[in-house]
Amino acid sequence: MRRFLPDTFTILLVCTVILASILPASGAFAGYFGTATTLAIALLFFLHGARLARDVVIAGLLHWRLHLVILLTTFAIFPLLGMTLGLVPDSILPRPLYLGILFLCVLPSTVQSSIAFTSMAGGNVPAAICSASASNIFGMFLTPLLVGLLFSVGGHGGFSWNALLQIFTQLLLPFILGQALQPWIGDWIRAKKKLLMPVDRGSILMVVYLAFSTAVVEGLWRTFSLTDIAVVIVADIVLLAIVLCATTFGSRLLGFNEADQITITFCGSKKSLASGVPMANVIFAGQPIGAIVLPLMLFHQIQLMVCAVIAQKYAAAHHRRATAAEIEQAANPA
């Protein structure tokens, strides 16, 4: 049953939301905390850039068909499904929460969990590293553009081009700087993964606290009921189920081998909380983003639980085949 329990980071997220609900940041403190959060997010993306080795990027480019399938799933199939959910009446799925679901649909894939699950299931790990990393790099451009397109088409207002400039200065520029310094500091940063983990998680928790503080002050929990939250959970589950089926069976129909099928399944079905929360903070600057990031936070835990089960099933199947091969070889020695 341990695979169904929330991970430590999810527990910390829940505690952060509770803290923001009881003691929300406001006034001058919120301003200072917002500045500190911006600096923490810049450091987070600097470390992302410094971690990514050049040879991984070069090697990954050779497997372009796999990466193209994952990118189309992440930035085309997901947004189309999100737009379809817009047909659900506001009386069932409140519009602010629907916009949060639409936002998660245009986000890039995760990096750490995509690679971890691919490795656990016996997939193509080098391709997963490259594809997940590429998804986040392209996402810095595609996510704000898709937000501007889909939100304006839906009549919800898009974002100014200033938002794209802010994405560049606050997220992409630190990433580029980290990548430029990667030959000199990359090995050290990768070796200090546990030491630097608080930067990764702490920066996300800071954004979540600030976002929910603003939302609580403006009446988030008075606006949405437990029924509304349950509807979002169901919508997240449906989204994940459809994409998992599409990536699993679609990759088979396209003729990919099993290792690549596993990579496409896990990289194509994920949405990044680590990239999504900072992007929401920039794209929707000055607006309450509590309702925007809530569906993403719920999706984050759902995808971890479901993909953990799938990865273990793949691993068990590999183990059975390997055992059967060993038995056959022992029974029929050359």
Automatic annotation (TrEMBL):
Tagged with keyword Transmembrane helix: yes
Span of the signal peptide: none
Keyword terms, alphabetized: Membrane, Transmembrane, Transmembrane helix
A GO cellular component annotation in the UniProt record: plasma membrane
Annotated transmembrane regions: 30-50, 62-85, 97-117, 129-151, 163-181, 202-223, 229-249
Family matches, as InterPro entries: Na+/solute_symporter_sf (IPR038770), Put_Na-Bile_cotransptr (IPR016833)
Key word Transmembrane present: yes
Protein name: Sodium/bile acid cotransporter 7
Organism: Rhizobium metallidurans
The organism's taxonomic lineage, starting at the top: Bacteria, Pseudomonadati, Pseudomonadota, Alphaproteobacteria, Hyphomicrobiales
